[in-house]
Amino acid sequence: MHKGGSMKKTEWTSTTSFILASVGGAVGLANVWKFPSTVGANGGGAFILIYFLAVTFIAAPILIGELMIGRSSGKSPVMACLDAARASNLSSRWRYLGYMGISACFIVLTYYSVIAGWTIDYAIQSFRGHLLGLDAPAAQNAYNAVLADPRRMTLFHTIFMTLTALVVSGGLKGGIEKFTNFAMPLFFSLLIGMMIYSAMTGAFSQALHFMFVPDFAKITPMVVLNAIGQAFFSIGIGFCFMMMYGAYMRKETNIPRTSYMIAYADMLVAVIAGLAIFPMVFLYGLNAGEGAGLIFVTLAVVFGTMDGGQIVGGLFFCLMMFAGLTSSIALLEPVVHHFVDRYGWARKKVTLVTGLIAWSIGLLMIFSYNIMSDFKPLFFISYLADKNLLDLMDFIVTNLILPIGAILICILVGWLISRDIIKVELSFQNNLVARLWNFSIRFVAPIFLLVILVYGLT
């Protein structure tokens, strides 16, 4: 029996607070770190064009479905999926969709905290002047030194996980809302400030041309899949934390309109991050498609060379830290609230226990870079043979759990859920928009997600 009480008693103070928290949950290292490197490796403007279409016709329609399920129940993802199934005369096994989502949240949190800890490390290094004068080999050596030092990584992993747990332990209004209402305006200010700085000092016109003048000759099946995958993962579809945030929504909030506001705000942040990074990359003649090293190696060289780079670099890595923190809060909240909602356990105790478990597993992720670097769990499978523990966990979540979870959401919302729930929860502007959403959630999104799933596993 449900002991925790209905979540409908706890709501966002305002729609603005909900949007800030939701954008914060979606915006993370994937936007500030992965997006620019992915754009650089996939042809610039052509990639962004497909990315925009994917956000519009794949990611946002699924987001609408997740928020609808969450608000219709007002409970944690597991209970929300169960309530939707019961109201639609479906099997109670649909609750496992919620379990998949919160499991993905927990797994990602264990290593996300490790990677986000690097941003704190680099912010301190930059402010202290340790990045000054680094050339590319020296920056790579500095990055390798971070990965090789388990004590150093553990320190910043601990700091980051502690900050995450402190916010979540405060609940919706005393923790998540209070933090995001402060952090997101600061995040946007820092990001726009970085973009203005790049426009004034970097090769801004070259960056604009690279990002917004599509070269259609560069559009390949791989570029299309990467763009769809970036749209899908950057908004956080399949994690069910949007379902959790939807549980706190007020009934008068328009879900379709708000969903597109969140999706486009997330995309705008990613684009602004590109406009903050690429002018510096092009100014110094560096490789825009550097991949993961674009931030911690390539930009470390840029910040170490430019005038005022000690401060600019420190602020940039603080920006990344805020982006990571708002996402880690969104990852931990559904896990914590499941036990509060399902069993009526005290939030602070649940947060402490789940945070400690995630932190402990995170130590294994840290060791996978150094003292356990030779441990390849699935060495007997050729295309997974070279993956350490962290890479393997990321592969499982990114290529298996999330696509399957998103496809199941499409099936549940598009084909099976009671039409009464849709009528009550969704208020479309007109019938054409409603029909487009219905077509996207039934056909377009699941087909492309299935392709991504097959591609990712093969």
From TrEMBL:
The keyword Lyase does not apply. Signal peptide: none annotated. GO terms for cellular component: membrane. Pfam families: SNF (PF00209). Keywords: Membrane, Transmembrane, Transmembrane helix, Transport. It is found in: Membrane. InterPro entries: Na/ntran_symport, SNS_sf, YocR/YhdH-like. It is a multi-pass membrane protein. The keyword Flavoprotein does not apply. SUPFAM superfamilies: SNF-like. The chain crosses the membrane at residues 12-33, 45-69, 96-120, 154-172, 184-204, 224-248, 260-278, 352-371, 392-417, 437-457. This is Sodium-dependent transporter. It comes from Paremcibacter congregatus.
